[in-house]
Amino acid sequence: MQAKQMMLGLLGSAILGGGVAVGGYKLLEPAPQAPQSAVASDPNVRYTSAMRSSGYAAPEGLNFVAAATAVTPAVVHVMTEYAAAPADHRRAQMDPFLRQFFGDGGEGQEQPQGGGQGSGSGVIIAANGYIVTNNHVIDKASKITVVMDDKRKYDAELVGADPNTDLAVLKVKADNLPFVKYGNSDDLKVGQWVLAVGNPFNLNSTVTAGIISAKGRNINILRREDNMGIESFIQTDAVVNPGNSGGALVNLSGDLVGINSAIASHTGSYEGYSFAIPSALVSKVVDDLLKYKVVQRALLGVQMREVDATLASEKKLPGLNGLYVAALTPNSAAAAAGLKEGDVITEINGLPVNTSSQLQEQVARFRPGDQVKVTYLRGTAPATVTATLRNATGTTAVVREAAAAAAVKYEGATLSAVPAPQQNKLGIAGGAAITGIKGSNFRESGMADGFIITRIDKNLVRKPADVQTYLDQARDNAGALVEGVYPDGRKAFYPIGQE
Fold it and tell me: pLDDT digit string (tens) for 48-82?
């Protein structure tokens, strides 16, 4: 019996010892290594291995699926081609300041000497083929092609463009297309969710989400010699990269609240903030381009200074809100309404304006002849007046493309208007094309027929009549320097009346 118990004890000890040995071995055994992440053919793209399901559902009102599903089919890929152009006329020569916003890839990419290609986005706004995009997406393009989300491809015609707001309208020959409805950008609140839909880096139908970071943002990207650029951007933290420009910014209902236009970046790619043109301005500009082929720009006619603590102390202003009227343009809407230098404008049509960009956006929504209510402070007394907005010439007349560019006979030559598509292709605003030079007083100047005059001395030429005006003014001087461009993009300078 004792021998049997001894044998059982030895057996149990052996089993226990074996278990301890195996367990110790397993503890000391190296942990199995996870397979290394594979690298795709593009060294900048890597695979991830997150592969687990989750039953979590987003709270009501925070699910982006419905908006993304509704909008994606109506956002198109805009592909552009560029004819060969001189080196100083290519986008490769873009101002370095602008590169930090538009980037170097996708739209705005370098165009080689023999021409090149570009890429951006657009938003279908009507079932019969009207598309809104950025002006800089199609700027100077010799051919524009639109690719739908379902891969259908169409040649696009440029209906009109407005560099002042960086907007353009395209038209494709198609019907029953999906489209996006306008939302009211005035209703947007800082902190509200929005989606950006576009084609970054040629990745079609990309949707990103973010919040409204700020409104009425001026980033000084639409710098123009005539100071007519309008900037009152919606700032978001939705990821936007080169190629997104011209794409949709929508709310969670899928309504268009902005057109994505730029990013703040030192590298050309997304670094945290993006900027969109508000839909309230987009809808007005698009409507003008469709009706008149040219934007009806309304002006209040004031030179403004934003009120800060220094200005408030210097001018003894009652507060830090509003815009200080530093000067009035003669024959302007503001002067006719009774505004005076030293007034502080606080509201336009009941909406507060504390920055110049906010005032410009509010006024830019109207046409010459429209009336707006201007609330202001004179001293400490508030008052409201009704101002009838005027155009750049000081009238309330509608400016039409043909009327803005009537041909002029001058010194034996003919000066004609430059069609809008050609202006856009050459990157000019206005100008006057000269013909009949051999039989005119310009025959010794060296310029050839077809030359487009864009500037005389320091004066911008916007229409044919400007050439006569500025050259007549130069008669009493030593002469004038005429600057311009030929239809193939060659720039040239010619002295007139100089010995």
Answer: 555 555 555 556 666 799 999 999 999 999 999 88
- Exactly one of 149, 166, 288, 466 is catalytic; name it: 166
Q: Is 77 a catalytic residue?
A: no
Per-residue pLDDT, 421: 73
Catalytic residue among 121, 245, 332, 357: 245
In 218-333 the beta strands, taken as DSSP E runs, fall at: 233-236, 248-250, 256-264, 273-278, 302-306, 323-328
pTM: 0.69
How many C-beta neighbours within 10 Å does residue 202 have?
Answer: 13
**How remote is the C-alpha of 323 from its chain's centroid?**
25
Catalytic residue from among 89, 119, 136, 279? 136
- Backbone φ, ψ for residue 210 (5° rounding): -170, -170
State how far the Cα of 332 lies from the Cα of 391, in Å rounded to an integer.
9
CA quadruple 308, 310, 311, 317: dihedral sign: positive
Burial of 293 (0-12, 13-18, 19+ CB in 10 A): middle
Token pair for residue 254?
A: 């899928």
Q: Where in the chain is the domain with CATH 2.30.42.10?
A: 302-388, 403-496
State yes or no: pLDDT of 436 exceeds 50.
Answer: yes
Residue 4 has φ and ψ, to the nearest 5°, of: -65, -40
Is 136 among the residues known to form the active site?
Answer: yes
Of 25-29, 45-49, 61-65, 404-408, which gets the smallest average pLDDT? 25-29
Domain with CATH 2.40.10.120 in the chain: 67-292
- Crossing angle of helices 356-364/279-292, nearest 10°? 40
Is 302-388 CATH 3.40.50.360?
no
φ/ψ region of 139 (left if φ > 0, alpha if ψ in -120 to 50, else beta) reads beta
Question: Is 479 a residue whose pLDDT tops 60?
Answer: yes
- Looking at domain 67-292, its CATH class is mainly beta
Query: How does pLDDT run across 213-255, given as a tens digit for each residue?
Result: 999 888 777 665 556 677 888 999 999 888 899 999 999 999 9
Q: Hey, what CATH class is 403-496 in?
A: mainly beta
Q: What are the helix and strand counts (H, E) for the chain? A: 10, 26
Q: What is the pLDDT of residues 355-381, one digit of tens each?
A: 988 898 899 999 999 999 999 999 899
**166 annotated active-site:** yes
Q: What's the rounded mean pLDDT across residues 144-162? A: 93
φ and ψ at residue 92, rounded to 5 degrees: -60, -25
101: left (phi over 0), alpha (psi -120 to 50) or beta: alpha
**Predicted pLDDT of residue 224:** 56
Q: Which two tokens stand for residue 41?
A: 């053919």
| Closest alpha carbon to 98 in 106, 108, 90 | 108
